[in-house]
Each structure stands twice: as structure tokens, then as C-alpha cells.
Design goal:
Elements: H1 2-5, E1 10-13, H2 24-38, E2 43-46, H3 56-61, E3 66-73, E4 79-87, E5 90-94, H4 96-99, H5 101-104, H6 115-126, E6 131-135, H7 146-152, E7 155-157, H8 168-173, E8 176-178, H9 184-188, E9 190-195, H10 207-211, H11 222-235, H12 253-261, E10 264-267, H13 268-276, H14 278-283, E11 287-295, H15 304-315, E12 318-326, H16 330-335, E13 340-343, H17 344-348, H18 351-356, H19 358-369
Parallel strand pairs: 1-2, 1-11, 5-6, 6-9, 9-10, 11-12, 12-13
Antiparallel strand pairs: 3-4, 4-5, 7-8
Length: 370
């Protein structure tokens, strides 16, 4: 392959995280030494990627933001120290690092909520933020953003006038809300959300049907959860937004934020790509290596590797994918412009073995990738 790339190629390493096993930076650290051994003269550009989920905060901190922290709660309302980033009057938060599945651990979708994200966002505003940007990937809840709004100061009651608890169980009971308790400073902020999926709030591709089971929702409970989300959208006066792409992100937080805060939402991967200068890096390179834990059909709906592949294809640069698991057939990924795909599970002999020593097997997979 050195004949194709030359003896001193520029190689861009731009993976996303391998969820549950390695951060994007750890993936790069695992494979870079093998590349350096293969091409001693290679110039490697490290461009860890994210798409609004895990790793978003790291990408921002690497670009001149300062790390801050505050008290909040995880997805099951246990105290946590929540990180966020600040630069001037702009704050960046990553849901996954506050009340996401990675922090919460347990899958309890009826009780899990986005309350901690609202608490942290309010703390960021109290710290001087006037522009708040939130990455919504990796959530543990399907609460329609009820918890997020409660954390900002919303009040919500059931039929009997009792306050409802954050979470899907509370969402199913809420019948009346009052946003007067949300401080003016919060309302005066501009709010922007980074989405890693394109799913609507409700329906067969909605938050409950697609992501609920990943968070512990039984198949038999999907219809009532979907109905609760639909009723919530009506209560917010935002039923007309339920079918819009991305409104099902993080269990519906995007819709709640748009309805109450006038928030804007955009795909996270292109935003991160612009932040880290991905296109400029790829334009100087001979080869791009990207990847994530599971390279499957969901990867094509707003995930970071798809953005890396798109940019590489536009610039005419060879792109290859390293993944823990591959769920896309070769004709499909070749049609996307991908030159090679290697699965750690195949190299290791099983998914369990690959996940038990992910950095080792990532390094072992590099020769097959090159």
C-alpha cells in the first residue's frame, strides 16, 4: 500500500468513540503506533470526532474552551459533578457526561430523566453563559425533555394537582405545566442543540420505538410511551413539530427546548467537523481512517463517521473504516465511497473478545485496514 500512498503520506485519524469501550482519543492512541511503524515517515493528523454524543465536550475543550463543573444529578437522580465548557459567554454541555447511559449505568427508562442536564444548563447560565450549546447523544431517558425543563424551573402537575416526577412515568401523568418559574436569564439565552440522530418524536421511527428498547423499555410498553410523548407535545403546543427530523433526539429534549426556549437544532457531526477543521485536515491527506463501535445503518443517520466519509469523498481522498462491529454490506459501504472496512470482532474472533481488549484488537486490525 505504500506504493499507492507514497513513503511519507499524511494520514488523518478521525474516529468517533467506540461506545462503552474506547473514546475517540483512545482509538487514535491504539492505532497510531502501528501506522508509525508501518510508515516511519508518515505525518499523522489526530482529529478525534464526535456528533453531539460522547466526546463532544472533549472536542470543544481541545479548541480553547475552559472546563467548568457544577452539582447536578445523573439519569436516576443521584448526585454527580457535571462538567461543562465555557469560553467568554458561550457554554457547551454534553448530556452523555451528565445524565447519559455511560454515567447512569442502569437502564430504567420509566424513572430515568434529563433533570441533571437542566440543572447543569441553569448553572452555566448562572456562571455567565448567554449562548448555550448542548450535545444530545447518549441519553438514558425517554422523558420528552420534561426533566430538562424541570431543571430549568418549569413546574408540572398531574390531574390531581400533585407535582409530577421527572422521567417517563411522570411524563405519562403530566396534565398541566407552568413555565413562569424559568428565570428570565435562561429565556434570554440563545439555545442550540447538536443532534446525532434524525428521528422524529413519535411513530415507528420515534424516540420510544427506536431508542426506548436500548434504554430498557419493553416492546409491550412502546405504545403507551409513544402516546405519552404525543400528549406531551400537545401540552407544549408543539404537536406540529413531532414529525420533524431530530425531534426525537435524547428522548424528545430537542422538541421541548424548541417549544419552550425557541432553541435551534442542527446535526452535531457537521458542527464538530467545522470546529476541529476536519475538511482542511483531509484536504492535505492521502488517507483518512474513521470508525465507531458499530458501523451500521444508524451510522448513516447523523453519526460522525458518515460526515467524515462525506467530506473525504467530496475531496477525493481515500477513506477506510475501523469498527467494533460492521452491520453494512460491502456493496452499501463501497457505494458510500469507502475503500475498506475492518471489524474488530472479525479480527478478534468474537464480539466479546473484541470488547474485552478493544485497544489491543484495534492495533491488531490496522494491517488489515492498510
Amino acid at each position: 500500500m505504500s506504493g499507492l500512498l507514497g513513503e511519507s503520506p499524511t494520514i488523518v485519524l478521525a474516529p468517533d468513540k467506540f461506545k462503552g469501550t474506547m473514546t475517540a482519543g483512545e482509538v487514535i492512541s491504539a492505532i497510531e503506533p502501528v501506522i508509525a511503524e508501518r510508515w516511519p515517515g508518515a505525518h499523522v493528523l489526530r482529529v478525534p470526532m464526535a456528533d453531539g454524543g460522547d466526546g463532544t465536550l472533549d472536542a470543544v475543550l481541545a479548541r480553547g474552551f475552559d472546563r467548568q463543573q457544577c452539582s447536578a444529578v445523573d439519569g436516576l437522580h443521584r448526585p454527580v459533578t457535571a462538567p461543562f465548557a465555557m469560553r467568554a459567554d458561550t457554554a457547551v454541555l454534553e448530556l452523555a457526561a451528565i445524565c447519559g447511559l455511560a454515567v447512569t449505568g442502569q437502564r430504567n427508562v420509566e424513572q430515568a430523566s434529563s433533570l441533571g442536564l437542566g440543572m447543569a444548563a441553569r448553572a452555566a447560565v448562572d456562571a455567565g453563559a448567554r449562548h448555550v450549546l448542548i450535545g444530545l447523544g447518549g441519553s438514558a431517558s425517554v422523558d420528552g425533555g420534561l426533566g430538562f425543563l424541570l431543571g430549568l424551573g418549569l413546574q408540572a402537575w398531574d390531574d390531581g394537582g400533585a407535582p409530577v416526577e421527572p422521567g417517563l412515568a411522570g411524563l405519562a401523568r403530566v396534565r398541566r405545566i407552568d413555565a413562569a418559574g424559568i428565570p428570565e436569564a435562561v429565556r434570554a439565552c440563545t439555545w442550540q442543540f447538536l443532534l446525532d440522530v434524525e428521528n422524529p418524536l413519535t411513530g415507528p421511527r420515534g424516540a420510544a420505538a427506536v431508542f426506548g428498547p436500548q434504554k430498557g423499555l419493553a416492546d409491550a410498553d412502546i405504545p403507551w410511551a409513544d402516546a405519552a410523548l404525543a400528549h406531551w407535545a400537545e401540552l407544549l403546543g408543539a404537536a406540529q413539530l413531532s414529525g420533524d427530523p431530530g425531534m426525537g433526539a435524547a428522548g424528545g429534549i430537542a422538541l421541548a427546548a424548541r417549544a419552550v426556549l425557541g432553541a435551534e437544532a442542527e446535526p452535531g457531526a457537521p458542527w464538530i467537523a467545522r470546529l476541529v477543521g476536519l475538511a482542511d485536515a483531509i484536504a492535505t491527506s492521502s488517507l483518512v481512517i474513521t470508525g465507531e463501535g458499530a458501523f451500521d445503518e444508524q451510522s448513516l443517520s447523523g453519526k460522525a463517521p458518515a460526515e467524515v466519509i462525506r467530506i473525504a469523498r467530496e475531496l477525493g481522498v481515500t477513506v477506510r473504516v475501523l469498527a467494533g462491529f460492521v452491520g453494512i454490506a460491502e456493496p452499501r459501504w463501497r457505494a458510500m465511497g469507502v475503500d475498506q472496512v475492518v471489524s474488530l470482532s472479525d479480527v478478534a474472533g468474537s464480539a466479546d473478545e473484541a470488547m474485552s481488549r478493544p485497544a489491543f484488537w484495534a492495533a491488531q486490525a490496522v494491517p488489515a485496514l492498510l
